[in-house]
Amino acid sequence: MTDYDVLRVFCGPDGGYGNELGVVRDGSLLPGRDDRQALAGKLGFSETVFVDDPERGVIDIYTPTLRLPFAGHPCVGTAWLLDVPELVTPAGVVGARQDGEFSWIEARAQWAPPRTLRQYPSAAEVDALDVPPPGEWVYAWAWEDEAAGRIRARAFPGRGDGIDEDEATGAAALLLTDRLGRALNITQGRGSQILTAPQPHGWTEIGGRVRLER
């Protein structure tokens, strides 16, 4: 079995929750896309990252069933793990920085895969949602405190690959921030925390806590 690290990305204030991420630090061990896809499917994380150049931050991202040009929680987690100022993804160069307990990346909304952003009247209604059948990728959200920018969200990939609900999804938070045009403090899943902040010239920062599981 290829060696890999397991991180939890977008942890809550107490260090709990967060979305698991697999990172293969030596991508040269599996250079082929088919082999990478097979390992990502076997590991079963919502995303697995293969690092092709740790010094330059060149990475390759896979879900259990497909390759992604960009994804939020893999970039936040891998930037923290490699401690680099940027990551090079197929979508573009992602800026990265560390600020105390938070790892931040800077990306563009057009890099994110399509998502259905579905607003609900209350956080309680989001909490009560059942997992929808496979189909569209749904980011369900509601204001907890609109004045403070606090949001309750849940994410349903709808891919039919065994990931019924994503605990924390940076790309969807990026799209929502771009739509609303303001900084957000998102509680997603069981208790993960995602922070976002619009930046000049169409960029958005996404930040969260990262923990090394093993």
Structural write-up:
With 214 residues, the protein is α+β, with helices and mostly antiparallel strands. The protein folds into 2 domains: 5-105, Roll (Diaminopimelate Epimerase, Chain A, domain 1); 111-206, Diaminopimelate Epimerase, Chain A, domain 1. The chain has 4 helices and 14 strands. Strands 1, 2, 3, 4, 5, 6, 7, 8, 9, 10, 11, 12, 13 and 14 form a 14-stranded mixed beta sheet that branches. Strand 1 (5-11) and strand 2 form a beta hairpin.
Question: Top keywords for this entry?
Answer:
PhzF family phenazine biosynthesis protein; 18% helix; 14-stranded mixed β-sheet; Diaminopimelate Epimerase, Chain A, domain 1; 2 domains; alpha+beta; 4 helices; 214 residues
**How many E-type strands?**
14
Please, how many helices? 4
CATH topology-level fold name of the largest domain: Diaminopimelate Epimerase, Chain A, domain 1
Main structural class: alpha+beta
Which oligomeric state applies?
single chain
Strand content: 35-45%
CATH-defined architecture of the largest domain: Roll
The figure for the number of domains is 2
* Series of H and E elements: EEHEEEHEEEEHEEHEEE
Considering DSSP H and I runs of 4 or more, what fraction of the residues is helical? 10-25%
